[in-house]
Amino acid sequence: MQAPVRYTCKTKQDVGNWLICQDEPYTIRPPCLVYSFGINWEFGFDDAMTDLGCEVHLFDPSMKEKDHKRANNSTFHNMGIGSYNTDDTSSTTQLPFIHNTVTLYPQHSYTSSTTQLHFIHNIKVIDVLKMDVETYEWTIIDNMIETDVFKSIRQFDVEYHLFPDYPLAEEYIHIYQVRLSFAAM
């Protein structure tokens, strides 16, 4: 990456299997708002953020769970994040990965700006937005840049996915451009 590093965190805190920055002015403390996209039954990050006193919203349509309040007072939503809004409940996507095939259920997926409006969080700052969405991150980040959503996100944790067969090699130039646009923000 050719973009300069804008900030290097000095105090990283392990929250589940993710890291957050606890340097001022990025310190996460109540009241704090967390969006966590892509759970796959791994609640370590979400529970740790709840333990810090944050309002945590978990999103994952692939788990086929109904919306509910969890025992630790976080809220699970049967919806995902996407680069466009959809309520398509009839289709699934099969992505061939190294050792198995992952089925993604894109129904009830919304852009991050639509999700904020849905939960009336568009006037709030999202302290941490965590995203692990199995290759969809590339188009979602594009949409987030286009819609200027990052201005209301203090910390962004993302797991990038590059597999031998997906995304296609010819898409790498665009992926590189997305990374540069994101780094320059």
UniProtKB/TrEMBL annotation:
Start and end residues of each Methyltransferase domain: 13-166
Domain of life: Eukaryota
InterPro entries (alphabetical): Methyltranfer_dom, METTL24
Entry-linked Pfam families: Methyltransf_22
UniProt-listed PANTHER family: METHYLTRANSFERASE-LIKE PROTEIN 24 (PTHR32026), METHYLTRANSFERASE-LIKE PROTEIN 24-RELATED (PTHR32026:SF10)
Full protein name: Methyltransferase domain-containing protein
